[in-house]
Amino acid sequence: MLSFGGSWATTINLVPSSEVFGCIEMLQAEGNGESTCHNISSDLVNLPRLFTADIAAFYETYYTNKGVKIIKGTVASGFTAHPNGEVNEVQLKDGRSLEADIVIVGVGAKPLTALFKGQVEEDKGGIKTDAFFKTSVPDVYAVGDVATFPLKMYGDMRRVEHVDHSRKSAEQAVKAIKAAEGGGAVEEYDYLPFFYSRSFDLSWQFYGDNVGDSVLFGDSNPSNPKPRFGAYWVQDGKVVGAFMEGGSGDENKALAKVAKARPAAESLDDLTKEGISFAAKI
């Protein structure tokens, strides 16, 4: 199985390219120890837009222990096929090649805004909207990944690529449309950034903003059967982001409260010592 990162491919030989998730899920489904999974990533760390180097190192080691072979710093450049047309190898940009029986390729996506070029106002690679997802054109709304909207809690314009926001922004737009039809009003969209993933026995959640200084707490030993650890991000003396691997439902809710409230943090050392208990008392 081959998986490419920055783009992703899965080698029974199974090869994914881009982020590791497709490869991990397929390897987990195989579950017979006979498959080989390579993850090919142009990035030097896993999920660099979200993870710190320490968090990325945990997942890379955990996946490696599960049989995933991670190849970093290159991308897939082409494929070779058997005479019957089935895939044979994945060729890498650095000159190497990998045998593959199955290849999964995820090349990512960009907002498709070309259709509306010159017709609606754009910002930061998306279609600019207000807090109700109205565009600059009357009766035209944009939701999900394509919308650049005011993120109220941070006071700036952002475009968010996640299913959670896609669902909630669509809900907000529908509420705004229905309210306008009835002469009513709805509150402005007040979104808390949220990301999550599950693979093997792992499950993590992240809330808020991953900016400023970060601190790691808990047990992040990838060899332990049930690792449980987290991280906080602190900017201008306030906790602005929170992450937890292996957290309970209540603990994950506490993380969300912390990221939303942005409480003051007296010291990074104290945060490290308190760990999840800091979030639990908010």
From TrEMBL:
It holds the Pfam family MDHAR3-like_C. Signal peptide: none annotated. InterPro entries: FAD-oxidoreductase/Apoptosis, FAD/NAD-bd_sf, FAD/NAD-binding_dom, FAD/NAD-linked_Rdtase_dimer_sf, MDHAR3-like_C. The keyword NADP applies. Keywords: FAD, Flavoprotein, NAD, NADP, Oxidoreductase, Redox-active center. One of its GO terms (molecular function) is monodehydroascorbate reductase (NADH) activity. Residues 49-169 form the FAD/NAD(P)-binding domain. Residues 192-279 form the Monodehydroascorbate reductase 3-like C-terminal domain. Catalyzes the conversion of monodehydroascorbate to ascorbate, oxidizing NADH in the process. This is monodehydroascorbate reductase (NADH). It comes from Brassica cretica.
